[in-house]
Amino acid sequence: MTNNYVGEDDLIYNTSARLPVCLCLDISGSMQKNDAISQLNSGVKAFYEAIKNDDQAKSSCEIAVVTFNSTVNVVEDFGNVETKAEPNFFADGGTALAHGVEKALEILDVRKNDYKNNGIEYYQPWLVIITDGKPGDMEDLPALQQKVVDLVADKKLSVWPIAVGSDDDPVKFHAIMDVLNGFCLPEKKKALHLKDLKFNEFFEWLGKSVSTVSQSKVGEQVKLDTSGMDSWGEI
């Protein structure tokens, strides 16, 4: 899956406030289990469709996709949903989670500078982290976790850490949840476990949440429908 839509965007012609959403996705070999990778493809497609079908969200939301296995790739740089290619991820390799998050933060910084240089207001950026395994780059993880926590504390980032599978292996499951909770404020541990590979339900909820935020004013505190999480997520 490649889409080299970078640079020539509509910041000049579309002056709507932007909501940048970066999907940081695990496509390691273990995502082959129970065909999770196909469900991930379907879920991201559902997210794109949810944004396309909402005029306000379509004008405001910009999506980027960073994948990580043994390497990290910016599959989709930030841009309007209509520029996005059909999701077609393949599962293989290890789990370079820390490096994936590092790249996601890097491209978020670049995009925020683009907004500032073009006089475009933007909502607090969103980072969605989805993984099913213990990182293979644990030595680099604490610094990235702290960086994310600091951004969240400063209200410069909202993070959605999602664990996939592994509940049939309690030791592995708790290890993954501990890693993901490390990206959250200590007093607000909110890493979630995705029930039964319900990627579609999660991404449809995410699309509705984007719609809610895009209809608000920049800087306004918005209450999302967290009750909708019950259908797909659990702590």
Count helical runs.
6
Strand order of the largest sheet: 3-2-1-4-5-6-7
Tell me, briefly, the overall form.
globular
Oligomer: single chain
Radius of gyration from the alpha-carbon trace, in angstroms: 17 Å
Distance between the termini: 32 Å
- Give a count of the beta strands, DSSP E runs of length 2 or more: 7
Largest sheet: 7 strands, mixed
Report strand %.
Answer: 15-25%
Low-confidence stretches: 1-8
Level of helix content?
A: 25-40%
Rounded mean pLDDT score: 91
Order of helices and strands: EHHEEHEHEHEHE
Structural class: alpha/beta
Question: Can you describe what's shown?
Answer:
- The protein starts with 18 loop residues before the first strand and ends with a strand.
- The chain has a seven-stranded mixed sheet with strand order 3-2-1-4-5-6-7, sandwiched between helices.
- The N terminus is likely disordered.
- With 235 residues, the protein is of the alpha/beta class.
